[in-house]
Amino acid sequence: IHKRVMLLLIFLTISVVATSASPWIPMDGNNPASYCLSWRLAIETNNVRAWRTVPLQCMRYVEAYMLAGQYDRDVELIGEQVRVYLNEIVLPGDGMDAWILDVDDTCLSNVYYYRLKRYGCDPYDPTGFRTWAMKGESPAIQPVLELFNDLIEIGFKVFLVTGRDEETLRQATVENLHNQGFTGYERLIMRTAENKKQSAATYKTTIRKQLMEENYRIWGNVGDQWSDIQGEYSGNRTFKIPNPMYFVP
């Protein structure tokens, strides 16, 4: 099965005509699959930052990565590593043990929306994404849902911290999470007018600081963006979910 997946990746990638080269990674015109693999590695390790769109020649590569099984296996492996860490923790049992999860493309997948945006080859469309989010049709990322349930069973207070707008998207987000099995979390924290203009990194750092000022201990923090897990008060351990479709500063 691994050979079939690799052949699919190579076939889909070679089928895309390379129309533009990235300004920051040389394009190997003879091996686009190798280039796209290197590009994904660079963004996931945060060596390439503030990128706006997926290179057009990598659209089919990203599609295959997200849908042909490798993304699912990568997320499952991250979940396994989280559980290794969880086995090392002894909770005091005072109810102040916190765990933070991002929402978009951490708990809920937006891959079907981004399929319409050529898997990130098109620029970010805030109006289009808001329309999608209001439908409440984002499916759960199953390994994260399983981890979420494990965290609650162990005794963590799980905080869902998202950059979604409080005023326009709270009801749709609550219903979407509930319908996909995310129930029993401590708090869903969304952007308000007060932090609307902050970068994601600043906003999420501010939220984590507030939680620690409430005397919560942040044992873990999981997100698909580096801005979810970097900065102060990030928690005892952070875990990065892969996302080759977009970058949020």
Automatic annotation (TrEMBL):
TM annotation in the entry: none
Report whether Signal shows up as a keyword of the record. Answer: yes
SUPFAM superfamilies recorded: HAD-like
Q: Which InterPro entries match?
A: Acid_phosphat_B-like, Acid_phosphatase_pln, APS1/VSP, HAD-like_sf, HAD_sf
A Pfam family of the record is Acid_phosphat_B
| Keyword terms, alphabetized | Glycoprotein, Signal
| KW Manganese (keyword) present | no
Q: Which Gene3D superfamilies match?
A: HAD superfamily/HAD-like (3.40.50.1000)
Task: Kindly provide the name given to this protein in its UniProt entry.
Answer: Acid phosphatase 1
**What species is given as this protein's source?**
Brassica napus
Q: What is the phylogenetic placement of the source species in the record?
A: Eukaryota, Viridiplantae, Streptophyta, Embryophyta, Tracheophyta
